[in-house]
Amino acid sequence: MSVFADALVAAGQLLLTADASLGDITLLSLRVSATATLIAALLGLPLGAWVALTGSRLRLPTLVVLNASMGLPPVVVGLVVYLLLSRSGVMGPLGWLFTPAGMVMAQTILITPIIAALARQTIDDAHLSLRDWFNSLGLSATQRVATLLFEARFSLAVVLLAGFGRAIAEVGAVMIVGGNISGSTRVMTTTIALETSKGDLPLALALGALLVALVLIINGAAQWLKSWLEQQRG
Amino acid sequence: MADDVLLRLGQVSVVAGGKSLLSNINLEIQGGESVVVLGANGAGKTTLLKLFNGLVTPTRGTVQAPPASDQALIFQRPPYLARSVMDNVRFVLAMRGVVEPARTEQARAALVACDLGAIESRHAPLLSGGELQRLALARAWACRPKLLLADEPTSNLAPSATREVERLIQSVQAQGTTLLVTTHNVAQAKRLAHRILFLADGQIVEDRPAADFFASPQSAAARNYLEGESL
Questions:
Q1: ipTM
Q2: How far B39 CA sits from the closest chain A CA (Å)?
Q3: Looking at per-residue confidence, does A116 or B115 come out higher?
Q4: CATH number of A2-10+21-232
Q5: Which end of chain B has the lower number of beta carbons within 10 A, N or C?
């Protein structure tokens, strides 16, 4: 317990005297995960809406694949993306291996199914009470999707936060695809893994505390924004 | 007069889950009529109403009705968007291609007509049952539909709210809109209807002018219903 307490004190001191590299690592983590969340939202929200509303025979197989993909092992995704981006891979010419772009790609693959599956459930629930009305109005599929996405916007914001949380906390895929290169692809989780393996527990703990604090701040801000908007509309 | 027929069912039957909901229905309703559908629970009233709106597809027979854009359907429990009262009305107008500033002008006029002008900025989920039903009527009013379908529109309302909703339905009908209402409220049927359709076991048992129907119901099922035995 004293080892943990000592590490915690040292972590506090490190955070108070944070150097530029700590800031760079944090900013890169945020940039990579936010970009992955944005791309996954652009892919996952329409996909979730389609699965929720379609009468196609592909609905059930897609739903099964989406739900199963929520549990994709990050290291497997990292390995597949690594092979795709490696020099002999089909996406090798892009030159994304060991770059933040490759890390964004890996995280996007990881969280798109999560966002799509949760969005599908959210939109399904919203549609349940509105389906007959929308049918009676003769709404097109596009009008229906746009309306439901707007109606469920607060719940979908939580879905995006879940996706972001999964992305920023992920270590296996970005370690393989990014390579944990100092000053280039080193993010908070890969640094924590590296420093722990080196025995530098205070730095690992400091980064861990910062990571948890960031996730708390972002979720808290989103909750505050939601409450504020609800107050504004009476 | 065939040109004035707005709604027509030709030998329509509806079967769902192995159960016959409507059986061999033939019906014509002229534009501008005010028709109330009466019948016990499970008689097929709501199914009949939803046929015209496309929410129910006939198993057999033909349905003639105006397109969805010329109809408004009032539900027993009115659905609404989690937006302001004004935005709920503006939504249906937007879906029908009405652009600004006409969209807001039409929405505001409809809200004023339905006594909701003072609460146009209120969040719809905060409305009472009577206010929600008036909001549904305001949405219908704003679109000036050829056909207003109302499925037991006052079944959850207090008497004062019921009369207010009836007044609004009559106002919409007075603008030339054809009215088709289902209800269990016999007094309401007397106030709203020019013509009564009485359904029993998925068939139209009586189709007569309202005054004649209430003065001398021809079928035992209708007599029992009016005496409260089928309720």
A1: 0.82
A2: 23
A3: A116
A4: 1.10.3720.10
A5: N
